[in-house]
Amino acid sequence: MLKHETASEVFRATALSAQGSGHSGCRFCGTKLQQVFIDLGLSPLANSYLKQDDLERDEHYFPLRVYVCSECFLVQLEEWESPENIFGDYAYFSSYSTSWLSHAKAYVAGMVTRFGIGPNDKVVEVASNDGYLLQYFVERGIPVLGIEPARNVAEVARTKGIPTRVDFFGEDTARTLREEGMRADLIIGNNVLAHVPDLNDFVSGIKTLLSDKGVVTIEFPHLMRLCAECQIDTIYHEHFSYFSFITAEKIFAAHGLTLFDVEELPTHGGSLRIYAQHSTTGPHRISDRVEDLRTREIDAGFADLGRYLVFEERALQTKRKLLAFLKQAKWAGKRVVGYGAPAKGNTLLNYCGINPELLEYTVDRNPHKQGRFLPGTHIPIYEPERIYATKPDYILILPWNLKDEIINQLSFARSWGAQFVVPIPEPQIVA
């Protein structure tokens, strides 16, 4: 039982588990799911940050159990909570990461250069968040539309002059837009594919909205990197699915879309950017990178069920090593605090059973998180300036994918000898 978990919540989650979530088949091909990729135990929703008054109330915990489909090799969670409840009032704003803004700006420049995207084209971003990316198209006079399910986040985008619809994208939304005369020449989906419970509806919607010679780009964390570096914290309830290239290729092909190029990116600990077009009318030749990555994944075993079934033991090693580091620091009288309050950090901390006795507090630049507490662990979240005021010995970087940006922001901490630690795949002190 987790430290803050009540008996009633354990009973509730256990009863739900016995009943099943109602999602017994693969969300792409329908095959019955029987093989467990990893079981991370019970965990609250990763973005359900708590206020002071919430600490006295029961929290909802849900199984964080991940399966792998024996037919298409899609790695996926059971669906315990609806997307409406997860994304209705969202605390994640993309614009608080300067490195992510730089990534978005470079992407826009690349699309304009490569595909000639200009003022006569229409650009649609699905899960457009606070306009972090579309703003750079707007600067160039290119028509855009954002589609964002979180109303509070969409309002921020609108204040920037970015047309944004509050909606969950799928076939119905795409048909409505077509009836209004919209056909997109470029459709963008950054870190949204994993959040989609109905993959077939989502990809079908993309096909419906895409112009005959249009291009789709989708970015998502790469399953091969997740496995290679034991990125267990990438797993949380908002992420319904985890993709290899070979599985993504099958999903898009089933809806008449061909992946004609792929890029391997450093973002989020290792991501893919796939490029898709209509299989019948798309004008772009298939890049050699498609065959190369497909071959590398097959050679690495991602078309073999056995490759997936050895991951859980590696995750246990990650857990044991992080707990050993934190306990040793405590025994030595050292103060350890966190930087960042990302969803991925909540998975890691709850899986490891870490509480304020081992991690005193964490800080975050996002004012929407400051003054709240991490779900499950109840670790308080403060403004970054608290680090200077308290001068800890170790700073555990929870959004480790942004470690270079964060270390640069906190360079002042070296003045009293503080050391930076990343937790994945095992605790390491970084320069």
UniProtKB/TrEMBL annotation:
Name the Gene Ontology molecular function terms of this record: methyltransferase activity
Keywords annotated in UniProt: Methyltransferase, Transferase
UniProt GO BP: methylation
Q: Which Pfam families match?
A: Methyltransf_13, Methyltransf_14, Methyltransf_23
InterPro entries reported for this sequence: Methyltransf_Zn-bd_dom_put, Methyltransf_Zn-bd_dom_put_sf, MeTrfase_14, SAM-dependent_MTases_sf
Tell me what this protein is called: SAM-dependent methyltransferase
